[in-house]
Each structure stands twice: as structure tokens, then as C-alpha cells.
Amino acid sequence: MFGYIKGELSYKDPTLVIVDVGGAGYELKITLNTYTAIKDQTRVKLFSYLHVKEDALTLYGFYEQKEKVSFLQLLSVSGVGPSSALMALSSLNVDELNGAIAVGDVKTIQSVKGIGAKTAQRIILELKDKIFKSDHTGKVPELEDVSHNTIREEALSALQTLGVSKVQAEKSVTAVWKKNQGSVSLEQLIKQALKAT
Question: Which residue has the higher pLDDT, 174 or 11?
Fold first, then answer.
């Protein structure tokens, strides 16, 4: 229904944006990779997907078309819903996910919160023929300087939005923070904390 949504960013956090299009605010759930790509922008164009359920209409937004394609491929796998697909693409970038699928790396896919061994095997089995290895490095730009407390608070909020309990989120964020001695970007903090949960 919506191929993409283009407009002013009126709100953004690591899991959600609101894009103002002609006075109407569209709320889109996003991945950490998309957040990293748009965090310094005021106007965005996000490739979008509308997920329809009996009780809800939810928009998902992606900075790159390949991320949207990967999201839809994950949704085509039995047992993988939008939340799990979003979590997978927040824990891994498209190239990392496709690489893991291509070589049958169950452990990497299973490291995503909410994806067990059977689902990881199903993802590999059903998507191996659909994906291809990309030459993109998937490097993430460093987060601009913000206060350390803000980074920790945003990371905790994002993890809870992604379904991690408050206690577990605090435990994981603290562990990652100490391990990196506070020298870590918001996206890296969330990704590492997700893997630690």
C-alpha cells in the first residue's frame, strides 16, 4: 500500500519515528540500522511496509530498500512475525544476516532475541535460495557526542520497546557499558546488549 514515506522527521528514537507528510504524522517502527542512518537528518525517505492485523495497522520503515526486502523475506518464514524480523534486523545488518543464512550459521541467527534453534534453521532453509552476499561493508557511523546518561537511557528505552524486561535491559546495558568503558555508540550499546540478553 505504501511504497515509501517522505517528509519531515518530527520525532525519532532508536525504535520509532514520526514522519510529517503534509501535516499528517505517520508513525513507523524502525530498526537500529535505519536509526543510525537517519539520526542526523531532518527530512527522510523511508521505504515502508504496512502490516495488517485484526486489531492493528502498523507501519514499518527502512532507510534502504534491501532492508525492507530482507524484512519481508523474514516475514515469509513460518513462525517469524514483524517483531522478530525487526529484532533480527536490529541485531544484525542485512549483509550479516544474509551472510549467516548463506553459510548456514544457526548460532548467529539464534543469537537474536526471540529466535530459537528451530526458527533459525527454518530461516536458513527457507531463505538460503533467496538471498545473495552483498559487497557492502555495513559500517556504522559513530554517534555524535551526547551525554553518557542519555545514551544509557535511550538504550534502556529501546531494549524495553523491543521486548526486553527492564531488569534484564539494565543488567545487559551495564555489562556492555563496563566492557567498553563507556566508549560505545548508542547503536553498538543496544546491539551488544541484545546479544547479551
Answer: 11
**Cell numbers found for residue 173:** 546495558
Angle at CA 143, nearest 5°, toward 94 and 101? Answer: 15
Residue span of the structural domain in which 186 resides? 148-196
The region, left, alpha or beta by phi > 0 then psi within -120 to 50, assigned to residue 71 is alpha
Q: Is residue 139 part of a domain?
A: no
**CA 197, CA 190: separation in Å to the nearest integer?**
11
The mean pLDDT value for 88-94 works out to 92
Residues 19 and 5 sit within 8 Å (Cβ to Cβ): yes
Cell of 180: 567498553
C-beta neighbour count of 132 within 10 angstroms:
7
- Please tell me the pTM assigned to this model: 0.69
- The rounded mean pLDDT for the chain is 85
- Give the number of other CB atoms < 10 A from CB of residue 83: 14
